Amino acid sequence: MKKVFALLFIFSLHLNAQQTSASKDSISVFYGKLFSALKKEYLYKDKTDWKVVEAETNKNLLQYENFKESLKEVAVLFGKIEATHCKVFYQDKGYSVPVKFLPENFSDQWKAKYASKPAFEAKVIDGKYAYILIPAITFSDVSSKNIHKIAQPLYDKIAALKTQNNIEGWIIDLRFNTGGNIYPMLLALYDLLGDDNVWGTLDINKKQIGTIELSGGKYIDNSSKVSYIDPKGVLLDKAKVAVITGSLTASSGEVTAMAFKGRPNAIFIGEQTMGMTTSNSMRSLPYGATLVLSIAYDCDRNGVFYEHIVPDIAISKKDNLDDLLSDENIQEAIKFIDKK
């Protein structure tokens, strides 16, 4: 009996050793692939001392007993290389440099609306102004079919405003747009952007390497059709548009604002945006993980880069989401629209 117990105990130790070894191996494999992707395509790859960063990371990784725990090190690594717009997704959880959120920098109205996880809105206020709230839009299936499925209902709500009302001007609220997928955001706004280049990408030397355009309801990235909406009625690409931004407007929220830079009859109101104006691409990593990797700078239709979107009219903590006509951002937007 003692002999059997001893054998079971030895077998148990051996099995645990195998599991620990497997966990350590998976950590090594994963970070090896992660570093390979970063060193090959990361926008600031040539500004990073990879030998030092990799050595420090590998030393830190020795403290972790399993792969999932080791993902805590991703934020540390990204912080060292200033990859504040990069992210690793694993089992529906994201790992990145934390965004600093100081409650005192936001109004009570903003915090209450943000906590409610606002959805897309398209409505008329005061009988003649169209109000469109575009929040963060995130999803994993980026097939053309799925993008169209998401974008078309958003576009249809905006198109209904133009066909069913006598709209004098348009207000696009991006205060709650912390990022996500740019495709449905810009496709939804097709009527207001029209058939034109709407943004682009720049290399590390700020030389333009990519152009994104809308044409006939199609989203075209460097001549390749990504997805589309079925447009209805006339374009509104000369109509007055006020774009409202906030300090947490980020990433694709900033690109949405940027798409109106260089467009006639557009004004920017609110707060300076977060400053995540790098273009990201998705890369596969081991064990079903995904890397969102910054590979270029974002630019407007004229090739101009913005570290932040700075409003023409600065307004902070004057939100009133319960009564939009009492919201100072909206009030300034209406003044712009009413001005002859």
Automatic annotation (TrEMBL):
Coiled coil: none annotated. SUPFAM superfamilies: ClpP/crotonase. The keyword NAD does not apply. Keywords: Signal. GO terms for cellular component: outer membrane-bounded periplasmic space. It comes from the Bacteria. The keyword Signal applies. GO terms for molecular function: endopeptidase activity; serine-type peptidase activity. Residues 1-17 form the signal peptide. Residues 103-316 form the Tail specific protease domain. One of its GO terms (biological process) is proteolysis. This is Peptidase S41 protein. It comes from Flavobacterium rivuli WB 3.3-2 = DSM 21788.
